[in-house]
Amino acid sequence: MSQIDKLLAKHCPEGVEFRPLAEIASKSASIKWVSAADASFKYIDLSSVDRITRQIGDTVSVTAADAPSRARQIVRTGDVIFATTRPTQMRWAVIPEEYDGQIASTGYCVLRPDNDVILTNFLAHILGTGTFSRYVEANQIEGNYPSIPDSRVREFKVPVPPLEIQREIVGILDTFSKMEAELEAELEAELEARKQQYEYYRDRLVGRRNFVSGEWTELAVAASIRTGSKPMIISDSGNFPYINAGNEPSGFTNNSNAPGGAVTIPSRGQGGAGHVGFQKEDFWCGPLCYRVETKSSAFINKFLYYYLRNIQEELVGLRKVGSIPAVNKSDLGKVKVPMPDIEEQQRIVDLLDKFDVLVNDLSLGLPAELAARRQQYEYYRDQLLTFKEAE
After folding, report:
1. Considering the chain, what percentage of its residues have pLDDT values greater than 70?
2. 153-167, 258-272, 311-325, 349-363: which range is least confident on average?
3. Which of 132, 229, 298, 318 is the one with CA 20 to 30 A from 366?
4. pTM of model > 0.90
């Protein structure tokens, strides 16, 4: 019998009490911007929390003059925040000391645990469990941006064993998390080395110097360049990724307007304009994204992708400076691309596809090992945080 089992048998022989979050975690206060004068605050928006590490990353400084309308909640050290917009992404974090007194988006439910009843890290680990994830999925409100009201988050009942048991469990999970983080850092460093190796070989195969003596043409001649449209419904689930501004999928749809095998280049946005992607499966191309597809049998789409990906910095450099950086279709169409024969294009694609699988395919190699480590932690966390409820 483990130490935790012994403690449960001693203190909770009939089961563990479950209580709604509203009873054991208070809310945050709202900032009064009219009284803030020129004070500057770090703003934690929905993209500030990393979904894997659960750490707060990039934030911006805001004042009363430029704070977004959602910048309202004052957070304190030890608060646990959970993103209620697109909640099935399970974006949550514990507020560290350096963010004490800073501002979080109203897109977060701020939980300030009563540490006489529940430990901060115990509550944080609870939010990562499959039980809470299923509760969120069942209680979210569907729409273009699915959400779950704060009130429903606070209705969730959590197990509240004695603090002695909570400390034992938190000690195990924190140690496991630390070991996992250290191992992940090593694996990610090795993965980064492989990516650099891949980029080196990609440059050797599709770098300009390899086509100096060959024929060249403009991208607009080699391929069609079209934007898409906005679908009726965008959600966190669906059969097809929605590709729009930005360099990551911005949701999912139940329909597609573009076939797989296309090159995508977002036309707008600081983070994505000019970035090159390749969509293996059917997808929905948004109005702020170019879909690039070859016009004839003289080109292979995947070859164009690898060449354009290799000169991505040049494409990003085409962005017009303004309130929203943008890459114009006419400028993109003038980009010169090489025209090796089809056999050579296929040879290059086959070689780079093999490298791509080794580096990026989530079912193979280091990415799979990273995923396995995370799954192992999630399994043990759910086991340790599953209790019989006292009647």
Report:
1. 96
2. 349-363
3. 132
4. no
The answer to whether the beta carbons of residues 70 and 105 sit under 8 Å apart is yes
CA distance 57 to 44: 9
Quick one: fold of 16-161? Adenine-n6-DNA-methyltransferase TaqI; Chain A, domain 2 (3.90.220)
Specify whether the CB–CB gap between 99 and 64 falls below 8 A.
no
When comparing pLDDT for 178 and 240, which is higher? 240
Distance CA 6, CA 346 (A): 64
Give the total residue count for the chain.
391
Single-letter residue type at 141: I
C-alpha to C-alpha distance for 95 and 178, rounded to whole angstroms: 17
Architecture of the domain delimited by 215-339: Alpha-Beta Complex (3.90)
Q: 10 Å Cβ neighbour count for 191?
A: 18
CA angle, 231 as apex, 307 and 318 as ends, to 5°? 35
Q: What is the largest CA-CA distance in the chain?
A: 81
Q: Where are the domains of the chain?
A: 16-161, 215-339
